[in-house]
Design goal:
There is one protein chain. The chain has ten helices and ten strands. The protein is α/β, with parallel strands linked by helices and 272 residues long. The protein has a six-stranded mixed β-sheet with strand order 1-2-3-5-7-10, sandwiched between helices. A four-stranded mixed β-sheet has the order 4-6-8-9.
Length: 272
């Protein structure tokens, strides 16, 4: 993504999602409840555009991924996969084309801002991409998680990249090899989500978490998340000198100067 694109939401019609900006928080809501929020081409493109917008806009510090209806997301819309068809009908979305399905994982991992998956219902198949590549995942206790592709003669290839960076290998392999769902408490135990909360408490829990993250040092958050993903691919001996350089850069940053000054002056920091 180019640095100075000056992306805008004005004049755009989002057909498969709803985008809401409230202060420092951008919420992307999957909006195909009649199709269990199955992922189609419009949804892919609209999410990518919204994430690019969020990355570009300095005022946005946190992204929430939410969904309408009883199901968070049913994965890929299989009606668009049969024979490679487009699903029929003219798209009502006028959002500029910016990428394909695999780009969602990359955009999430390289956003360099907190992303909270707000999971109000069950998660199936390719929807695990949202969960695995967000920085936080909070689910309603009744929600279930499954990778049922094997039952359809398909393997969850794209999901594996994020899944095995979270779940233990034996549990992860069993999860995708048998296609059986797991409950939210088990998903938490295996590291797939952060918390499982009562459905009635989900809204308030995610709102409080988003507000907390939005009030933390945004420049340091970007630097830290960038370094987190970079060092994850490095050998230990290479990661240490890289992280030392990042620490030195962080200490020199405006956020660190303001944070230290606020601590010494016994006041709340004012982040730029």
């Amino acid at each position: 993504m180019a640095k100075e694109e000056n992306l805008s939401l004005e004049g755009l019609h989002f057909a498969a999602t709803e985008i809401a900006e409230n202060g420092n928080i951008l919420t992307i809501t999957l909006n195909r409840p009649e199709r269990k929020n199955a992922i189609n081409a419009d949804m892919v493109n609209e999410i990518i555009y919204a994430l690019d917008y969020a990355k570009e806009k300095r005022q946005i510090r946190v992204v929430i991924l939410a969904a309408k209806g009883d199901v968070f997301c049913a994965g890929a819309d299989l009606s668009t996969m049969r024979g490679g068809g487009g699903g029929g009908g003219q798209s009502e979305s006028n959002v500029p084309k910016r990428g394909n399905a695999d780009d969602i994982s990359l955009r999430l991992r390289h956003l360099e801002k907190p992303v909270i998956a707000k999971i109000q219902g069950s998660v199936y198949a390719g929807a695990l991409l949202f969960v695995c590549n967000s920085t936080h995942a909070i689910a309603a206790r009744h929600a279930a998680f499954s990778a049922p592709e094997i039952l359809r003669g398909i393997w969850p290839f794209m999901v594996m990249a994020g899944l095995f960076r979270l779940m233990p290998k034996r549990q992860g392999l069993d999860f995708i090899m048998r296609g059986k769902p797991i409950k939210s408490e088990e998903a938490k135990r295996y590291g797939l989500i952060n918390e499982a909360v009562p459905a009635a408490a989900l809204e308030a829990h995610v709102a409080a978490l988003a507000e907390e993250l939005a009030n933390l040092a945004p420049g340091t958050m970007r630097l830290g998340l960038r370094a987190y993903h970079a060092q994850e691919e490095m050998a230990f001996d290479a990661a240490l000198p890289y992280l030392r350089e990042q620490l030195e850069a962080c200490v020199r940053s405006q956020d660190a100067k303001e944070g230290i000054a606020a601590f010494l002056e016994k006041r709340a920091p004012k982040w730029d």
